[in-house]
Amino acid sequence: MTNTTRRKFLATTGAALALPWLDSINGFAHAAESTSSPQRLLMICLPLGIYREALIPATSGQDYEATEYLSYIEDFRDRCTVISGLDHPGVNGGHSAEPRLFSGVPSHQQNALSLDQYIASHIGRETRFDSLVLSAGRNECSWTASGTMVPSESKMANVYVKLFGQEDRASTDKIVREIGHGKSIMTLVQQQARALKPSLSPADREKLEEYVVSVQDTEQRLIKAEQWVHTPKPQVSLAVPEDPTDKAEIITQLRNVCDITHLAFQTDSTRVVTFGYFQQNNVNIPGVSNAYHALSHHGKDPSNIAQLKRIEGVFFNELNRLLNKLKNTQEGDSTLLDRTTIVVTSNLGNGSNHSNKNLPVLLIGGKFDHGRHLEFEPSSVPLSNLYVSILNQFGIADKSFGSSTGPLDDLEFG
User: Fold this and answer.
1) d(CA 63, CA 294)
2) Topology annotation, domain 32-166+236-393
3) Alpha carbons 84 and 59: distance in angstroms, whole number
4) Contact by Cβ (8 Å): 27, 159
5) Measured between alpha carbons, how far is 120 from 118 in angstroms, rounded to an integer?
6) What is d(CA 44, CA 261) in angstroms, rounded to the nearest whole number?
7) How far apart, in Å, are the Cα atoms of 15 and each of 11, 145, 182, 322?
């Protein structure tokens, strides 16, 4: 490739990647009509860990005694499976393992597609938004196939407008013009790429092919946006959430995220949501005086543990509230809870010592046969085996994902 040709190509591709309309497009993809039984996915990470003794039962099987945290969601015992002993082989580094929690890619490799984004690529065409990546503090768990983190949204008022704000005719006409402009640029990029291909080395051809695939994916998103831009967004009765100005108001932030998640599923605006529950410093929770992160490194100190359990107890209380809302929302002959698979986990098996082994996992809802504690020998089974089972439940027949060795043993469909 000559320097002149290379400059022309980079100029064209740079324009394609930097178009200002790409950001706005995400706000105007619309939900398709619901299928007969649409399935949804909610993946939640607690990046600072989950205090193990308050979550994981002492015994396995169906007759386990509910722990402190499980008592918050005791009404959903028959819709919940507790899983212990799983982790990701080759994933380490304490907090730095967070981005690999939903991908399972070993730490020495470039990160790749996370489970939520992979499922979104299969079912996202049915909804206005392929997925929502939200944050109740922090979310670094959603990744594209090219190893790029999907940025999360922490302002639920912005998400509300994105989901339910109506555009006037002038705005929609402008969007359509921008989409058409974007599609023409994509076509030009693909034409230039095909013209350059014969003069490239095998390695460069492979890189160019990867780029062309990303261009094609962008083009498909534009086409999807064009299909839905004239379709009115759903009308909802919930007012715009008031985002807390103080990051210490973690309860308000978490509740806002849960409410938006429920509305997004209820209106079929998306079928895939992820979020994290995190605060580095102090939180406004009665009985808590130390910083959340510091408390996660409790060092077995009873006072630190008691405060940590108050913070994590808030999460399980709000989880119970969300589960009730999903259960009480009818959709056809089922409820949203029947049609939503929820994974609650952490990149840390022990927040106090930064261990990435023996991760805590709750699997709730969906089509699984629940009501048990599945206990595996620590580090003997990859967490990605659970991901394969989730894929199969969604009708995706993949036999592997990340570092998996197959679907998760003893986890059956109900």
Assistant:
1) 35
2) Alkaline Phosphatase, subunit A (3.40.720)
3) 11
4) no
5) 5
6) 11
7) 6, 22, 10, 42
Mapped onto helix, strand or coil, the DSSP state of residue 20 is: coil
With 50 as the cut, is the pLDDT of residue 13 above it?
A: no
- Cβ neighbors of 344 (< 8 A, separation 6 or more) are 44, 46, 319, 361, 362, 364
* Domain 1-30+167-231: CATH architecture, name and number where available: Up-down Bundle (1.20)
The residues near 339 (Cβ < 8 Å, ≥ 6 apart) are 37, 38, 39, 40, 331, 365, 366
d(CA 156, CA 381): 37
Q: Which residues pair with 344 in a beta bridge?
A: 44, 362
d(CA 57, CA 110): 35
* Cβ atoms within 10 Å, residue 104: 25
Whats the size of the chain, residue-wise? Answer: 414
pLDDT digits (tens, 9 = 90+) for 34-81: 456 899 999 999 999 999 999 999 999 999 999 999 999 999 999 999
Annotated domain spans of the chain? 1-30+167-231, 32-166+236-393
Those residues whose C-beta lies under 8 Å from the C-beta of residue 89, and which sit 6 or more positions away, are 106, 379, 382, 403
Question: Quick check: 17 and 212 in contact, CB under 8 A?
Answer: no
**Residue pointed to by tokens 């939900």:** 31
3-state secondary structure of 335: strand
Three-state SS string over 50-109 comes to CCHHHCCCCCCECCCCCCCCHHHHHHHHHHEEEEEEEECCCCCCHHHHHHHCCCCCCCCC
Please state the φ and ψ torsions of residue 307, each to the nearest 5 degrees. Answer: -70, -40
What token pair was written down for 1? 């490739």
Residue pair 86/361 in contact by the 8 Å Cβ criterion: yes
Q: Against a cut of 0.70, is the pTM above it?
A: yes
Cα 180 to the center of its chain, rounded Å: 30
Which of 8-22, 158-172, 374-388 shows the lowest mean pLDDT across its residues?
Answer: 8-22
Q: For residues 215 and 205, give the distance between their C-alpha atoms in angstroms, rounded to a whole number.
A: 15
Q: How far apart are CA 320 and CA 73, in angstroms?
A: 5
Phi, psi (rounded to 5 degrees) for 259: -65, -40
CB-based contacts of 237, cutoff 8 Å, min separation 6: none
What DSSP designation does 64 have? P
Task: Decide if pLDDT at 156 tops 50.
Answer: yes
**For 138-271, where are the E strands, in sequence order?**
none
Angle among Cα 274, 141, 40 to the nearest 5 degrees reads 30
* Percentages of the chain per state (helix, strand, coil), in multiples of 5: 45, 15, 45
